[in-house]
Write a structure and sequence with these properties.
Two copies of one chain form a homodimer. Helices cover 34% and strands 28% of the residues of chain A. By secondary structure, the first copy, chain A, is of the alpha/beta class. The first copy, chain A, starts with a strand and ends with a strand. Bound molecules: adenosine-5'-triphosphate (ATP) (2 copies) and magnesium ion (2 copies).
Chain lengths: 227, 227
Amino acid sequence: IIVVEELTKIYKMETFELQALQNVSFKIYPGEFVSVMGPSGSGKSTLMNLLGCLDTPTSGRYLLDQQDVSMLKDNTLATFRNKKIGFVFQSFNLLPRLDAFQNVELPLIYAGVSRVERNEIVKQFLAKVGLEDRMHHRPNQLSGGQTQRVAIARALVNDPSIILADEPTGNLDTRSGEEIMQIFQTLNDEGKTIILVTHEHDISLHTKRILSFRDGQLVGDKKVENP
Amino acid sequence: IIVVEELTKIYKMETFELQALQNVSFKIYPGEFVSVMGPSGSGKSTLMNLLGCLDTPTSGRYLLDQQDVSMLKDNTLATFRNKKIGFVFQSFNLLPRLDAFQNVELPLIYAGVSRVERNEIVKQFLAKVGLEDRMHHRPNQLSGGQTQRVAIARALVNDPSIILADEPTGNLDTRSGEEIMQIFQTLNDEGKTIILVTHEHDISLHTKRILSFRDGQLVGDKKVENP
Ligand SMILES: Nc1ncnc2c1ncn2[C@@H]1O[C@H](COP(=O)(O)OP(=O)(O)OP(=O)(O)O)[C@@H](O)[C@H]1O
Ligand SMILES: Nc1ncnc2c1ncn2[C@@H]1O[C@H](COP(=O)(O)OP(=O)(O)OP(=O)(O)O)[C@@H](O)[C@H]1O
Ligand SMILES: [Mg+2]
Ligand SMILES: [Mg+2]
């Protein structure tokens, strides 16, 4: 479902070029549950932004569901992305003037879902992440972990076939983190493809394959024994 | 050095009152190394904001270095705080238009440190957190963990006697997290008082005492065996 070939991302700084990703190649099949690990600054979020069609590579190819993403025009790309991919950002990226309910509702509005149905779905997903009693809090009235959970609910609400989550448990206590992994596990059992960046070994053990990065390069790709 | 008595924080929402902290009392002596743990939403950041003099309690008393903080006027409070406390925020709170160097330099400018000296100190602290080659990147040109490390450097640069760190390793891989804990350990050996919020058990084992919270209340206070 995801094919990445020689994916490269270079940021042009004033006096030099910074190679954030260098010739990264791998394949991910439908229904896989993959973690992405590596040191701070090794290129994980850069990769996730490329996979999520939020950024374009400097060179290399990215095929999503056999479609070469670079061939898609902006609005086709946006629809393609909103329908197929749910993205949990490392820094959440919630809209500060909307409350939790409205933030989670947004992707459903873009997908043209009716108001009555949106109401149902948003409440259901906020309840899943334990935030039904925080629906009308805005992001600055939520704790760090609550904000993270709103971002997770928002990523799942359109029932995407691919979930990209960048450090989804970074601000969660162990138990809340386990609850989130349960949600991901259930989605994976339903056939969703899940790629999550994590620095926590315990979290990676819930997945079935670990892609390891260092200095912008893919340096490891192994199965998890007894996930 | 820190005495908290019946500290309470209530947020007034439209239809009800949310009790974020309820009658919290404890004492922390100079040179202690304490972790604060508890589920998402249990009041940890709210407590840290009160200890950091960034917010005022609804009721209760907070004595910092035997000074009742509620007695201080705004500018006295600000000077008191900037001199004594280094604060690492859960969401970093860097200034987006300044680069890493300028963000770390800011507390030194407020403290009236000369330009020549500031240059030295900022470079030294950015090197400590491994970011000497990212000095001129702005926050949106840094990885999540790099942004976190800039926030840590900024908190330490004025050599404060008290360090309050809210999830300082939440976005760091295990090794970078260990390097940060080494920095905190060295500062603690020098006599600094350190209070850090963490959800990671391994991180809490580096400290010597754990305060546990649940639903806004202090529910546990124990020593760490063999930190
Ligand atoms: N400005 C606010 N208005 C209303 N409620 C708030 C506000 N800030 C925080 N809260 C609520 O107070 C409670 C405690 O929040 P706090 O940020 O202290 O939690 P926390 O322990 O730091 O959680 P986390 O581990 O998720 O960061 C939460 O339930 C949160 O929803
Ligand atoms: N817009 C940008 N301009 C310049 N350099 C950038 C930019 N964005 C990221 N970088 C650099 O690219 C490298 C990879 O960043 P990336 O965010 O992918 O790392 P990461 O693996 O997600 O790290 P972390 O675990 O700390 O979140 C970093 O060294 C970072 O400084
Ligand atoms: Mg990242
Ligand atoms: Mg918090």
